[in-house]
Amino acid sequence: MESLIPFTTSGALVDCVDKKVLVVLRDGRKLIGVLRSYDQFANLVLENTFERKHLARYYADQGIGVMIIRGENVVLLGEIDLDAEDEVPLEQVPLEQLDPAYKREAEFRKKRETDKSQVLFEGLGFSKEGGEGDGY
């Protein structure tokens, strides 16, 4: 019966070791690489890592190499289906072509979040992220 209880700790990552994974970070970046190692805090070591940048129906990859990721920054981690990976309905373009528009979009999103945070703080009394009252 105990074998039917699912892992809810970093131990669940054991099945993803040496497999290609997608990692979404708190700052919104999407990293793809081979999970080589992890620890009890879900700190990750990725090899052959690249950051995938999406904009509309286009994407570009920026190579990183080996990366160590602090576990508290991971929002999502999932194994990539290698058979379905080639059927992505997006068009790959060179990073130089996508990067300027991607940066403009990122700045727009950042400003929108800042404005929204300010309205919530001033109008409804919410605390600002990382500010007083945001601790856990």
TrEMBL record:
Residues 8-83 form the Sm domain. GO terms for cellular component: Lsm1-7-Pat1 complex; P-body; ribonucleoprotein complex. GO terms for molecular function: mRNA binding. It is found in: Cytoplasm; Cytoplasm, P-body. Belongs to the snRNP Sm proteins family. Component of the cytoplasmic LSM1-LSM7 complex which is involved in mRNA degradation. This is U6 snRNA-associated Sm-like protein LSm1. It comes from Serendipita vermifera MAFF 305830. The gene is LSM1.
